Amino acid sequence: MAELAKATVETAEIDELHSPLREFWRRLSKNKLAMVSLVFLLGLTLVALFAPYIAPYDPINGIMEESLQAPNAKHLLGTDELGRDILSRIIFGARISLRVGLLAVAIALSVGTVLGSIAGYYGGKIDLIIMRFMDIMLSFPSLLLAIAFMAVLGRGVENAVIAISIVTMPEYARIVRGSVLSVKENEYVQAARAIGNRDAAIIFKHILPNVMAPIIVRGTLGISTAILETAALGFLGLGVQPPDAEWGTMLGSGRGYLFNAPHLVYFPGIAITLTVMAFNLLGDGLRDALDPRLRQ
Amino acid sequence: MDNLLLNVEDLKTHFFLDDGVVPAVDGVSFHLRKGETLAVVGESGSGKSITSLSIMRLVPAPPGRIVGGRITFAGEDLLAKSEKEMRDVRGNRISMIFQEPMTSLNPVYRVGDQIAESLVLHKRMKKKEALEQAVEMLRLTGIPSPEKRVRDFPHQMSGGMRQRVMIAMALCCQPELLIADEPTTALDVTIQAQILELMQELQRQMNTSIILITHDLAVVAEVADRAVVMYCGKVVEEAPVAELFENPLHPYTRGLLNSIPRLDENVDRLFMIDGVVPNMLRLPPGCAFAPRCPEAREHCRETAPRLTRVAPGRLVSCLLVEGGAA
Prior knowledge:
The complex is a heterodimer.
Chain A: H1 2-18, H2 20-30, H3 32-49, H4 51-54, H5 86-122, H6 124-138, H7 142-153, H8 157-183, H9 187-194, H10 199-207, H11 212-235, H12 247-254, H13 263-290
Helix pairs in contact in A: 2-13, 3-5, 3-13, 5-6, 5-8, 5-11, 5-13, 6-8, 7-8, 8-11, 9-10, 11-12, 11-13, 12-13
Chain B: E1 4-17, E2 20-33, E3 37-41, H1 48-56, E4 64-73, E5 76-77, H2 83-89, E6 94-97, H3 111-122, H4 127-140, H5 146-149, H6 159-171, E7 177-181, H7 189-206, E8 209-214, H8 217-223, E9 226-231, E10 234-240, H9 241-246, H10 251-258, E11 308-311, E12 314-316
Parallel strand pairs in B: 3-8, 3-9, 6-7, 7-8
Antiparallel strand pairs in B: 1-2, 1-4, 4-5, 9-10, 10-12, 11-12
């Protein structure tokens, strides 16, 4: 009896080792750059969540007498032209950048995944119509298209999210379509049909879980694109409107002081660079960890 | 006819490609009684798999389409059913086992969940109840410690085990008809024998009819009651298995049987049917087998033979067979 119990425990342990999630984590944790990025991004998320408690000053209302100060003991990253603490503004800016990035990717990913899987699964005319539409959108430079959408929708952060998700959506649709095309040829899809599943169940229950890896990777990389585009729209004065703190907007309003107060541009720029780099490195790490060809 | 379960009459499934129309299944007729095992034999591309997909109404469309014929299953016309009605048939009353056990299970789900799926779908079972039933099905297919194995992912199982899971999946709703598309081709010989034995055992228990699609005549001899031989989308011969092996009437069947290596003869080279399967886009006008047939006469190349009854239970489509004239 005791032996049996022991054997059970051992199989349970083997089960754990074989679990795909475990295997994935083991592979991801080997990648130092990805882990550093993950820690950085988790830290950034915490900072964004608790911004009001962490930021030393009010990000909106500055003290005019202290404007354009270089980094010093009181203002670690200096102050801007209106005497606002740049560190505080960057901390609050993280909220907007992360939220816009995640939200834009979430919308683009969901819509793109649905369109791409329908196109890939049904093929034929439906595929042709959906994908030609995506091709048309891809043929414009995405920022230009985003600006055009902003012109129609009007300024503001919500519209920036919508514009960015519309222009990035075709990429997700293409990736999902390609993966669905190859996965749907598997016999288990035929088997799912043969036990009487409806099309929707086959697509969402049997095919999509098998194409998650490229979607997750592209989504992670996509967050950095979305953050960059938000910053670009902000820089151009179309995205987040003053006085709200957003990294791109800070860059835009700081560029007039590039020569006498370069820290106005440096620090938001560094924040954008680090965050975008972290998402890219994490995305690369995820790709390596999820790629079945690299699995032993 | 008593106990008739499935009757396929003049089934035509064609594929409409850019280059032309491929008559993958071209006027196939056969029937199946309750509890019987019918083997459908033929080379790759002879239309045997498309015939089974046609019965399930799962022909990939486009480019494929069932263009004619009738499929009667337990008195119901399957071709007249709506897609929704067909979904109730699939997996519930007719189910399928596929050739590749390595790829016919979804890698992201535990095998128990996959067996439970059709129970939830067709028998309106609760998930928990269905999982318990899945354990029972695994036990029935002879998988050791099924209550643990039910939580395995497909990659944790061997090919033979996965095929047992497939059988459990196919039979959990106690279907009246099981279509097994080359169920043992991807397995090694000892496992093959086990799987065939298991299928026969479960067939006896559940009184299921089986259509066994194969190109392996050894498998046919072992498990089937009757056999249908297909060539280029047509049935060329139908006979009870013992008679087919004893006295094959069609030259193609003879060729197939001669191609089996024998233990009691020592030959340097195995027998081979000359030539290759003709291009389905440009089938010869007469008998499709005539270009490869060692016995073909002039009129074989001009006149297409018809499937004709030559003895009780024996049908053949050949101009050379007595009574088999067009």
